[in-house]
Specification:
Bound molecules: adenosine-5'-triphosphate, magnesium ion
Strand content of chain A: 15-25%
Helix content of chain A: 40-55%
Largest interface: A-B, 31 and 31 residues
Order of helices and strands of chain A: EHEHHHEEHHEHEHHEHEHHH
Structural class of chain A: alpha/beta
Strand order of the largest sheet of chain A: 3-4-2-5-1-6-7-8
Radius of gyration of chain A: 17 Å
Distance between the termini of chain A: 14 Å
Oligomer: homodimer
Number of strands of chain A: 8
Shape of chain A: globular
Largest sheet of chain A: 8 strands, mixed
Chain lengths: 260, 260
């Protein structure tokens, strides 16, 4: 059964794109069929893997713009690209996605476009991972509404703890309109074990939100930046690095939780 | 003569707020009179120093909302708060600033509100530092239009290099409407000297944009997160750390450039 994982946090630079790509690679390595959808108009995930928006014939922008739900499966097929070595497919983004707030304003049901797309994907993929932009808007709402699980990457510091209330508020509001409440897990990212602040915030998280925090922790690792410079994921560039191992650990944790 | 420094980059988590606060502290330590204005609706700079938006009687939101330019000096006076130990004043933010795009939409001259405020600040401060949100919008435009210098903090990796074109495009567009082109400098932040990617990107920057890149480089330093957990700047919490020294170096570079 298809699992849609939304990687979301309205704070910038917390490791959403890194998580979407590395987790995608780790799940692919385990043999699962994975699609990574780049919902960020800045297209960082797409560009990371060499899918330059201006070179794509079709992007997610066309998918969202299409009014006729019956035509979207064909658009999806056109825009999905397979990657050469990474073990997942990609649905690339484009800066025009930032115009959706305006373009879709008077239409109905615009929060459920991605949810409706699940039907066309559920026999082709085991996991669809949504890389979200650091904004609260129509793209994030689509991701939260379509998701089985929302992964919230969070830097373990005091301000990050404060900042995560915003996505909690967004989920709380959406829950009023959804058949069941949004399931989420916090993922500690860029964890610096030498920093007392990191250790304290992690301890606080485990106390206050124990069953909502992943066991897996993503450590600071210079290899992530090396990987983005080479257009590959860390699992390909540095398979035995601490960063790569942490995302494999996360992939196992996620698959194990589903079978639980 | 008043120097307005806008700290801007539409990418999230690159060190804008850290730069605004640490540079503000460093310039204050040198004896200059400094005001840090928090233009980010997420209010990270304000919260970092303990100015919780919901506790403020007046915030920058009221300043922007005021139609009568003659009334803004009084609002400014009301909202500026001095900090106990940090050597600068603060103009706090509020989440309602995110509503300005809507609230100000039909008004004229909304890009020059901060520029017009300079007159009221130029005899009280030597430096006004603007902490910008990671969005291209009316707040960023106000900052760019009001600034003498735009400081662009940038993580030295391949994607950051690609991402910085967006703020270049924004400045290029604004330059067509301004009396003189916007002056800017790139500041390498979160520099990890063990990462080959960082070294390569820095070398590339120095080749391609030599006179537009600061000599000062801000290294990765765990002390920054410690400081945010304690509600103080790194200069107060870890004055001899590499991070603190780097921002002092930047403050000297900025003051030296002006006198040049
Ligand atoms: N564990 C880590 N250790 C070191 N660097 C990391 C780690 N995770 C991510 N990074 C780096 O931090 C930067 C920001 O990460 P990333 O782009 O994944 O964040 P993001 O939340 O997607 O940002 P945005 O909000 O702009 O979409 C990138 O340069 C990335 O390579
Ligand atoms: N040189 C550094 N070394 C280590 N950590 C740093 C450094 N600079 C900033 N940080 C940390 O990185 C995180 C992001 O920094 P900061 O909030 O300044 O970025 P920002 O660009 O203002 O983000 P936003 O786009 O959300 O406003 C914070 O936790 C901060 O403490
Ligand atoms: Mg991202
Ligand atoms: Mg900030």
């Amino acid at each position: 059964t298809l699992q849609v994982l939304a990687v979301a946090n309205q704070k910038g630079g917390v490791g959403k794109t890194t998580t979407a790509l590395s987790l995608g690679a780790a799940l692919g390595e385990m043999g699962h069929r994975v699609l990574v959808m780049d919902l960020d108009p800045h297209a960082c995930a797409s560009i990371h893997l060499g899918f330059y928006p201006e070179e794509q014939r079709t992007t997610l922008y066309e998918l969202f713009l299409e009014e006729d739900a019956g035509k979207r499966p064909a658009i999806l097929d056109n825009l999905i690209a397979s990657t050469t070595n990474a073990k997942f497919d990609v649905a690339p983004s484009h800066i025009r996605l930032s115009e959706l707030e305006m373009d879709l304003r008077d239409r109905a049901g615009i929060g459920a476009i991605l949810k409706q797309c699940r039907r066309h994907l559920h026999d082709r993929y085991d996991y669809v991972i949504l890389d979200c932009p650091p904004h609260v808007g129509i793209l994030l709402v689509n991701a939260l509404v379509a998701a089985n699980l929302v992964i919230i990457p969070m830097q373990t510091d005091f301000l990050a703890l404060h900042g995560v209330r915003l996505i909690f508020a967004t989920m709380k509001t959406l829950n009023k309109a959804l058949p069941q409440p949004i399931d989420f897990r916090i993922l500690a990212t860029m964890f610096d074990r030498r920093a007392g602040a990191c250790q304290r915030v992690l301890r606080l998280l485990r106390q206050k939100a124990a069953n909502k925090v992943f066991e897996s922790i993503i450590p600071m690792d210079t290899k992530f930046r090396e990987a983005s410079g080479m257009g590959k994921t860390i699992l390909e560039v540095a398979p035995s690095s601490r960063g790569a191992q942490a995302y494999r650990h996360l992939a196992k944790e996620i698959t194990a939780n589903e079978n639980a």
